[in-house]
Fold these 3 entries.
Entry 1:
Amino acid sequence: MEEDRLEEERQEKEEARRRKEEDMKKKGKRKGLGGLSPEKKKMLKKLIMQKAAEDLRNEAKKRAEEKDTYINERVEPLSIDGLSQRDLRLLVQKLQKHYEKLEEEVYDWEIKIREKETEINDLTVKVNDTKGKFMKPVLRKVNKTESKFAKLERKEHRDFRGNLKSTGQNKYKLEEEETSKTPDWRQTLKGKEEGEESAPAES
């Protein structure tokens, strides 16, 4: 009897422990964004968008300030008050030389950037080849006018005699008549040889 009672108590404790664990699990579950209502979700989304827009504005402002400071450091302030005609001409020449120098630098940097881009493309192709991934080539769109021009060129290359109507006459007829009119010297030679052979036979 005592053993049965102990077994029942143990089972009750086990069930109580299970219920407690299930309750803790249910309380620990969260629905959506922490169980927020649709209004709160909309408000939270609005606040996030406002914060992102503000960050973008601050970043653009910071970039503009950095650009201004860089330009002010590189370019000296221009003061033309009280300068004579000769000094103004010298200043313009100096600015022109500076501008040409900057243009050369821009050109050099553009060439360097292109070289780096081609190098990057070559390396990516090599990496893809080693991995076994092949880049799909960009397909060129065929223009309809090009195909029409190709057809016209093919027509032009055809033999124009094929388009002519046949007259029913042989085009080699004139040549045959001329050849028939000319005497054949072989027959004359054969006649002479036959005459010579017959003469000694008679004698």
Note: The radius of gyration is 52 Å.
Entry 2:
Amino acid sequence: MKYPNGYSIANATFNFEQSVRGSGFFNSYKYALMPDVLGTEGRLFNGVEAANKAHGSGNIETDSTIYAESSYSNKTWINGAIDDEGEEIEDEEESTSQIQVKQDSKMAYSPLVMGIGKSYYDQHPVVFNSLLKEEDWMKNRNRFNSLTHSIDQAHGLNKVLDAQADADTNSMNIEEDLVDGRAHFSVLQLEGIPVDEEPEEEESEEEESDEGDSDEDAPEEVQVLGLAMKAWKKPLIEIDEDYVGSYHIEKNMTLSTVEEEEEEEDPWLPCCYGGFSDMEEMDAKALKSAKGIFDCTCFRVPGKAQFPGPQSIVFSS
């Protein structure tokens, strides 16, 4: 058994569970971002991201969980290594980025008058009169997609939510009963963020002849917007829905993007397929050289064998 010379692991996990029941005014905000070390390069925030916001006055019964994980491992062979079959062992690098959100809640709007403390607000009660509002969204920044669901101005809401996002998949399953409110759903899959390109410098004959012109006569430089100032464009999938009133809604939204790497297999008798120079290093070492044996190009009768045996044979013409 061979072990790597260098081994590093970095893990970050978050687990959240809650159960809330009561009446009054509530306001909550939950957010998680799990970066992907091996994700899209050049992005400030990659990996997967999730958020939940809710507020309202009335009765609430909710059970919810959030699990988030980001991990990275690296196995390095500093001086190289060969396995039992004589093949070179490659360095291993893996990363994980995922978020899972589950929620089962019942909310009913009602105005509430509440006296607080024993001083001013006891004599002047506070009035809570806020209709129900809640928003959930999941983003996969590596794959440039997002799923969003929101409720606002609602008088009642019973909702079951199951959402998760990882390196390849982003999904949101919802079943809800909405009473006198507005429901919004959106799905977005983008082609990607355009890479910044510097303006090409065009040198015309006039510019070459007017090298002595002043700075005032020089052409203005074209400014290139950075990634932070550009909007995501060219959507491959875009869904935008609104429902106003009372509805029973069931949604199953899943975006999955998988990139498969092509693996090339060495053909039978590889030295004859692509030549000795295209063989794997370990296979080539066993033969030492193609000269004097065959190299799959053009055969020439040697004047002397490269590997003479006990009896040497000399060819003459």
Note: Residues 270-317 form one domain.
Entry 3:
Amino acid sequence: MERNWLNEDERIAIWLDALLKTEPDLRPSRGVTKESRKGPLTPRIIILDDGEIAGYAELRRIGGAIELATVIVEPKLRGNGFSHQIVHQAWERWRQDPVLHGTPLGGQVDLSNAALELTGPQIVRGPLISFTRDAAMGAALAGGGFTLIPRKRRASRLWLWKSDFAALPLRTQIAVGFDRLVRGVTFLFTSPSRIVHFMRHSRKYRLFVRIPETAERPPPRLHLRSEREGGVASDVMNQMDALAFTMAEIETTSEQIAAWDEGE
């Protein structure tokens, strides 16, 4: 089929299918037909540059959290700040889109309470999370107001090893774990080499989180730029705990951070 005759969903599906087959860190492709059919039903972010697809990401409701996943930037356009645009748009959707959170439009209606609620419905219910081992994406997430969750020995792991994943609520841990298990089974039958890739790099993936209490806080101004923009060293993911950035509003207190680390 000629490219000019493709509709927008088909064009995105072809682009996405090609990159999902070459990027081992991402989910498996469902094929062009299924991607074009399911794409419009998936909360997603699409960045265009001169009419061409420059960036893509999906927002998934998983275990009470919203995961920013399947983040892709067109290879020839990387280093132009599109990952920062994706993170910013993800924050906007997370804090404003009730459908994304499964919240009824207009909020819950309590007919037994005749008092008028002036505060409006609460949209954000769960944290916005993202996993990455890419230095540039890590910098974009930190610049977008995400917190890098430190790896600590935790009671849920019997203090046997350090974990950041264990800081998430148990419901979210189970949902994410099941999702990754299904992905692994899919790879087992479609691309076994990817299982080896994930096992080899599993400890390199870091967890970044924005909690509901920070939903209305604008993203901070990052002091360091991503490596592709000429700033962060290649081993930045091992040093992200020391990233310094300023907050546009009130800074998160050490007590709040400690509470989140303990899963409260």
Note: The chain is about 30% helix and 15% strand.
